[in-house]
Amino acid sequence: MGSDNLSFKRKERKYIILEHTFEAIKKELEKHIPLYSFEGEDPNTQIETIYLDTKDFLLFNEYLRRRNFRYKIRMRKYGHNDVFEDTYLVELKVKQNSISIKKRFFLPVKLYKKFITGEDILKEIRVANKGLVGATKTYKLIAKLIEINQFVPVLKTTYERLAFQK
């Protein structure tokens, strides 16, 4: 992913591990794959995510049914030591089989309510995403999906993550 492009395609693998085995697994993985640290920060990244869905959880039910083609819309902020960025990454994550494609744009936190309620903030989005390939198009697509499907915030999670990356 280049610094001027927030969209990408990747194959991902996620694993559930038992908490008491975490340190041993982490130590063994570090021998083969480095921990990912954003801009030299502590590799423990805090993530706040707001998921959008219909009031009857259409997108979540598609996930539960394991549809081969499904998508989700979420808004993420990243942080370290309980200090979060003042910008969300709004993501449309499309999954087909095991391949994920993310299309994203930056949304300043101060524009959150306007965005969720469907106000036209295109000018502000262009400024916040200046020079980023496809950000305006992604904003328009996600805004239209929210409008058509009447998506609303349904879940907010906050957690800490370690990521390994080649």
Q: How is this structure best summarized?
A:
The chain is 26% helix and 34% strand. Strands 1, 2, 3, 4, 5, 6 and 7 form a seven-stranded antiparallel β-sheet that branches.
Walk me through this protein's architecture.
This protein is an alpha+beta fold and 166 residues long. Helices cover 26% and strands 34% of the residues. 11% of the residues are buried. Strands 1, 2, 3, 4, 5, 6 and 7 form a seven-stranded antiparallel beta sheet that branches. The chain is globular and about 50 Å long. The protein contains five helices and seven strands. It has helices spanning 22-30, 58-64, 112-116, 122-128, 135-149, and strands at residues 8-11, 45-53, 69-80, 83-84, 87-96, 99-108, 152-161.
